[in-house]
């Protein structure tokens, strides 16, 4: 099991388009992927739950991944956040 954090650094935060891109990544993996603030974790494969997080720029999100492909899942999620969801600034 992996339990780590990632910072939201893109200008608009985890809005609809960014959440959609995150869903594209998370649903590829068999591992359980949860994301949230502090102890409030939600299913990172559920678009409505992601949108309800209200994670704006500067938010630190906790990521908990458990399963057979957890390392690969974490790597792709971190890359997506680092690339600012491939949005123009």
UniProtKB/TrEMBL annotation:
Arranged from A to Z, the UniProt key words for this protein are: Cytoplasm, Phosphotransferase system
Q: Name one GO cellular component term.
A: cytoplasm
Please tell me the species this chain comes from. Acinetobacter radioresistens
The record's Gene Ontology biological-process terms are: phosphoenolpyruvate-dependent sugar phosphotransferase system
Where is this protein localized, as stated in its record? Answer: Cytoplasm
HPr domain location, by residue? 1-88
Domain of life, source organism: Bacteria
Which Gene3D superfamilies does the UniProt record give? Answer: HPr-like
Family per similarity comment: Belongs to the HPr family.
Entry annotated with the keyword Cytoplasm: yes
**Is the Cytoplasm keyword given for this protein?**
yes
Give the signal peptide, or none. Answer: none
The entry's protein name is HPr family phosphocarrier protein
PANTHER family associated with the record: PHOSPHOCARRIER PROTEIN HPR, PHOSPHOCARRIER PROTEIN NPR
């Amino acid at each position: 099991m992996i339990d780590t954090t990632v910072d939201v650094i893109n200008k608009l935060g985890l809005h609809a388009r960014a959440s959609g891109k995150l869903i594209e990544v998370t649903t590829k993996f068999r591992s359980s992927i949860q994301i949230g603030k502090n102890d409030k974790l939600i299913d990172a494969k559920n678009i409505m739950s992601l949108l309800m997080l209200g994670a704006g720029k500067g938010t630190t999100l906790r990521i908990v991944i458990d399963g057979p492909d957890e390392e690969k899942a974490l790597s792709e999620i971190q890359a997506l956040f680092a690339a600012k969801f491939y949005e123009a600034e």
